[in-house]
Amino acid sequence: MLLKGKVALVTGASKGIGKALAVGLAREGALVAINYKTDRTGAEATCRAIEAMGNSALMVQADIGEREQVEEMISQVARAHGRIDVLVNNAARTRFGPFEEVTEEDWFDVVNTNLKGTFFASASAVRQMKRSGSGAIVNVSSCAARLMVPFHSAYTMSKGGIEALTRQLALELAPVVRVNCISPAPTSTERNQQYDPHYDQNWGRVVPMKRVAQPEDMVGAVAFLASDRAAYVTGQILQVDGGWTLKGHTPDLSQEDFSSDRQRG
């Protein structure tokens, strides 16, 4: 029970890594608020998974790319629980494709959610954390920020920005608020399998651990960084990657169909 009694908000928690983190932090004793943008059904499923453990969860709808909605989301959580102890900036957008084909719409869609959302969600949460006298922020980056992956230009740029922001805020907000970041390896999610039905096998071959990550593989790292056991840890980028960044190979992505990225709401 690393997080017993702490109030944690996980953005983008209706599916994938975000859902696993919300459920995992609840299992560690946190009171979890679940953010979602459009997938209310997924958010409800995350809530049910938490409630099945005997815990309660709060659902908060907000588009992380819109500052006013982000600030209202933080206010809702603070009103419901009196404070925010942990913010996990997980919500992310992808618009993959050749660099020269990236449109301005693609660029803003990725940057607004991944970078602007992380920036202003952190700013709003920090105001609440400072009132309480402590807090922890855990950002979710990607190994793509360290190892360049073809067709990921806007996404990689935004994740690199998140890692730089992590270090900046760790310095600026110490000693009251700690700020750290995890950097996941290729992970088995519904979105990734839409691009490639054989995603797990193709990417698992290039990871030293011989498998892709599962969303649940991220829980231990985030729970630790959010907990008092990491009281002297700040400004760190933790690679949760099965050793992938030691090797750095990628499958052939030249035939990938990334068109579904531009069709998501």
| Mean pLDDT across every amino acid position | 93
Overall 3D shape: globular
Secondary-structure element pattern, one letter each:
EHEHEHEHEHEHHHEH
Uncertain segments are: none
Task: Give a quick set of tags describing it.
alpha/beta; single chain; seven-stranded parallel sheet; 265 residues; Rossmann fold; 9 helices
What is the structure about, briefly put?
By secondary structure, this protein is an alpha/beta fold. It has 9 helices and 7 strands.
What does it look like?
This protein has a single domain (7-263), classed as 3-Layer(aba) Sandwich (Rossmann fold), CATH 3.40.50.720. Strands 3-2-1-4-5-6-7 form a 7-stranded parallel β-sheet, with helices on both faces. The chain has helices spanning 16-27, 40-51, 67-81, 104-132, 153-173, 190-195, 199-204, 219-226, 244-247; strands at 7-10, 31-36, 57-61, 86-89, 135-140, 177-184, 237-240. The chain has 9 helices and 7 strands. It is globular. Helix content is 43%, strand content 14%. The protein is an alpha/beta fold and 265 residues long. Helix 4 (104-132) links the parallel strand 4 (86-89) and strand 5 (135-140). The mean pLDDT is 93.
